[in-house]
Amino acid sequence: MSALTSWRRTTFAALYEHRAYRFLWTGQLISVLAFMMSFVTQSVVAFDLEGNNSAVGVVQFGVGIAMLGASPFGGVIADRFPKRRLILVGQSMIGASMLGAAILILTDEITILFLAASTFIMGLAFSFNAPARQSYIGGLVGPKRIQNAVALSQLAMNVSRVGGPLVAGVLVSSAVLGPGGTYLVMSGLVMFATGLLLFIPAVPGTPPEQRRSFRHEYIGGLRYAWGHPRIRFLLLLFIGMVTVSFGFMTVLPGLLENELGRDAEDLGILLPIEAGAGLIVAVMLAGAVSGPRAWPIMLITAGVLGGSFLLLAVSPTFTVAIVAMLIFGPAISGFMLTNNALIMGNTDPAFYGRVMALTMIAFGAQGAMALPIGILADSIGERQTLLLEGAVLLAVTILATIVYTRSIRGHETDPQSPQPELAAPVPAPAPVATATIAE
């Protein structure tokens, strides 16, 4: 076997070995493509309607509030009920929301309020959809390939982050489709991805006789995550970094128009470049997330992420902004991929849904912060806002490195050896699959 073939089979092991996971992965690729298209499309529509950063923040605030409020409960539901059914319902809601926005735009009836309501519905659906999908992965591939499958899931997101903004930028600026037609395309993509779920076997939830009360399982999930130092550390770091770092989406349209002399539609240039660079790093790291190297990689990429914000803030030209995006992409991609793989590798299968739902808090908080960030950018300027975000990211990274050095490093164990101390502190529902907890 050649070195290239060996690398390919190691990197894409879960896709090679599990047909059902291939369908799930493909569906995620397509549905996230539509979701990433929506970031560009809704930002352009909002900025065109009102002409300020606050309008973009209001729209993103809708999805943020929905995810922030519903995500923890989505995890309990993901662990209790059949995963495929939850994803079917969630993606249908997202597709219908996009279709409604398309009709309002095409009939010239769209307002910021309606656009924010659409994103709220999307965020609500995603709060149940995302943890169910992550829990579904564990049921389809088993413990041997769970970390590789999670890494490949992040890879699919990066592929969509490349294609989404690029496709949206082309379609939004098209005289034939424009924003309304782009929303129609997004709705169609989500519905197609939903149909692929019918080719995947169902993974049952917890049997009714083994379920505890909703409140008991919800509190049990929180206690489990908080009671294990590594999971707690990884979750808090993820929430802090993602909440701050994705704030650049609120500021970018204004930075382009007010500071760099470009149109807001040029998001369709910057974002594919950023995501394309991130995709390369994701492919390189997908096979390397099961060992101890994942921890330092995660911290290094976190620090680089903060530095990319500082460069973007001082960018004198659009070209330098592109360079900043070439740094930002690999940094955010590497951080999220290694962090999520480490979380799943340290989590008991019975808690997959509830623990991964807690990562959704980060995206909810990011959306909820979009409005304050937009107001801040309107008050002090886009560059100053990015400088502040970069400083916060670097401070969080330094703090995390100190905690890791003093409390986490040295307590890591062989990823193939069982870790009894990770047993649930409260009775758990029957796991989807028996797993050895890995770092």
Strand content: under 5%
Quote the CATH topology.
Answer: Growth Hormone, Chain: A
CATH H level, superfamily name: MFS general substrate transporter like domains
Mean pLDDT: 80
How do the SSEs run, as a string of H and E? HHHHHHHHHHHHHHHH
CATH top level is: Mainly Alpha
Helical stretch tally: 16
Give the total of domains.
1
Structural class: mainly alpha
Q: What's the main sheet like?
A: none
Distance between the termini: 29 Å
Please tell me what the overall shape is: globular
So, CATH architecture?
Answer: Up-down Bundle
- Residue runs with pLDDT of under 50 for 5 or more positions: 413-439
> What's the count of strands?
0
Helix percentage: over 70%
Rg measurement, Å: 21 Å
Describe the secondary-structure layout.
Layout: H1 3-11, H2 13-17, H3 19-50, H4 53-80, H5 83-106, H6 112-141, H7 146-172, H8 178-196, H9 214-227, H10 229-245, H11 248-259, H12 267-285, H13 294-313, H14 318-345, H15 352-380, H16 382-408
Helix pairs in contact: 3-4, 3-6, 3-7, 3-8, 3-11, 4-6, 4-9, 4-11, 4-15, 5-6, 5-8, 6-15, 7-12, 7-14, 10-14, 10-15, 10-16, 11-15, 11-16, 12-14, 13-14, 13-16, 15-16
Overview features:
439 residues, mainly alpha, Growth Hormone, Chain: A, 16 helices, 77% helix, 0% strand
Question: Could you explain the architecture of this structure?
Answer:
The chain is mainly α and 439 residues long. It has a single domain, classed as Up-down Bundle (Growth Hormone, Chain: A), CATH 1.20.1250.20. 77% of the residues lie in helices and 0% in strands. It contains 16 helices and no strands. It has helices spanning 3-11, 13-17, 19-50, 53-80, 83-106, 112-141, 146-172, 178-196, 214-227, 229-245, 248-259, 267-285, 294-313, 318-345, 352-380, 382-408. α3 (19-50) packs antiparallel against α4 (53-80) and α11 (248-259) packs parallel to α15 (352-380).
